[in-house]
Design brief:
- By secondary structure, the protein is an alpha+beta fold.
- The chain folds into two domains: about 100 residues, no CATH class; about 100 residues, Golgi alpha-mannosidase II (Immunoglobulin-like, Sandwich), CATH 2.60.40.1180.
- Helices cover about 25% and strands about 25% of the residues.
- It contains five helices and ten strands; from the N terminus they run H-E-H-E-H-H-H-E-E-E-E-E-E-E-E.
- The strands form three sheets. A six-stranded antiparallel sheet has the order 3-4-5-10-7-8.
- The protein is globular.
- The N and C termini lie far apart (about 45 Å).
- About 40% of the residues are buried.
């Protein structure tokens, strides 16, 4: 686990990749624990993560027994929001196709591999159980410097789906011309929303909805 006695800037000066948390297990409980830990320390980790040095929350457990498809999408989404290394731990000879498609999702991988390399963060809780994550990324409006964003709505409830909704401006998405919103896991037509508009999403229990919000220039 992250040792508060260690100066992360010193780690950054000497390493290109470092583990921040304990070993992850093949269960939602372990994924959930890792997310809690990173959420609690995201300000410290975010200051040192970026091109040349990366925070590592441990391997993806996608495709292993004990993790559902929804839970696998959560890990893929949040690890990508964090700009974390996407290291697989599954036997690719026997992986189920549903999990394979999660690992091969080029749009989500592009979030993880965005050239800005900014570590995203959990910015608010919508309702009782939905953590909302954002990550600034390309393309950037050359006239205003406003970022595009990845968004992830993670439902931590173990049993119940929920409808999460929030105004874009409350997430820091304030680009006057608005954003083209694309669902990264589902085949839905993109929509254009202004900062005063509300994004609404039904999120499965221990599941996620993930979007790319691209600035309109």
């Amino acid at each position: 686990m992250y040792n508060k006695q260690i100066d992360l800037n010193t780690v950054r000066d000497n390493c290109n990749l470092w583990r921040n948390s304990g070993d992850i297990g093949k269960s939602w409980t372990s994924i959930d624990k890792t997310m809690n830990y990173f959420n609690d320390n995201q300000d410290k980790f975010g200051k040192v993560g970026g091109p040349g040095g990366w925070n590592d929350p441990d391997m993806l457990v996608i495709g292993n027994n004990g993790v559902t498809v929804d839970q696998a999408k959560v890990q893929m989404a949040v690890w990508s929001i964090w700009s974390a290394p996407l290291i697989m731990s599954v036997d690719l000879r026997t992986i189920d196709d549903q999990f394979k498609q999660i690992l091969l999702n080029k749009k989500v991988i592009a979030v993880d591999q965005d050239p800005l390399g900014i570590m995203g963060s959990m910015v608010m809780t919508a309702g009782d159980n939905v953590n909302v994550y954002t990550k600034p990324m390309t393309p950037v409006d050359p006239a205003t410097g406003d970022y595009s964003y990845a968004l992830a709505f993670v439902n931590r409830d173990l049993e119940n789906a929920t409808n999460a909704f929030v105004q874009l401006s409350l997430l820091g998405l304030t680009h006057a011309n608005g954003y083209v919103i694309e669902n990264l896991f589902e085949d839905e037509p993109p929509v254009t929303l202004k900062p005063t508009d509300t994004i609404s999403s039904v999120v499965n229990a221990t599941g996620v909805t993930m979007y790319k919000a691209t600035v309109v220039v």
